[in-house]
Amino acid sequence: MHIGVDLDNTVLDATSAFLHYYNIASGFSLTHEDVNDFYLYRLYGWNETERDVVYHKYGSDIHWNSSPLPMAVEVLQQLFSKHQITIITARPLLFRDVTVEWLKHHKINYHNITLIENKLQECMDSNIDVLIDDGPHYAEEFALMNKPVILFEQPYNLSVTSDSVYRASSWIEVNKHIEYLEAKLID
Ligand SMILES: [Mg+2]
Fold first, then answer.
1. What is the Å distance from ligand 1's center to 158 Cα?
2. Based on the domain organization, do 46 and 95 belong to the same domain?
3. Do residues 45 and 28 make contact, with C-beta atoms less than 8 angstroms apart?
4. pLDDT band with cut points at 50, 70 and 90 for residue 186
5. Catalytic residue among 8, 13, 129, 187
6. Are residues 51 and 72 in the same domain?
7. In angstroms, what is the span from residue 147 Cα to ligand 1's centroid?
8. Which of 7, 49, 119, 167 is the most exposed place for a label (fewest CB within 10 A)?
9. Which domain CATH number covers 121?
10. What mean pLDDT, rounded, does the chain reach?
């Protein structure tokens, strides 16, 4: 199978790093319990322009200092040996180098990497069979096209449900969904 894999809050814990640096920038002290929005910057009352200033200043530190989620590296290693892996992240191109270095540092293998916001179009163009992602808007877009998504569970995506959305709260569950979808594809 050709598997698309998101990074932030799917392979790695982005929330902790964003909270740390956004708290420094704002003087606030938000915690994980405050996070109920995919767009974390909105919790700080920033508009997109204000977010960009802070993100451009701290983005490299945020991305470098994010930790892999439990079992993500191990499961991705297994998947890499059997499947085509494309990393698909909506991070801006500005952070391509730190992203590639981070993946290397954590020994995460992949075949391709794409930094793009329109993940649905990219998955159509590259014939990706399934996307693993935490973004509720991506899950909804994919569901409309009947394309499967493995939705990595986060507090802000709990309300998304659809027949083509496979919810996973760990990488062990991600792996189980991949095995199921693989069997279904061969059928
Ligand atoms: Mg994400």
1. 14
2. no
3. no
4. confident
5. 8
6. no
7. 18
8. 49
9. 3.40.50.1000
10. 97
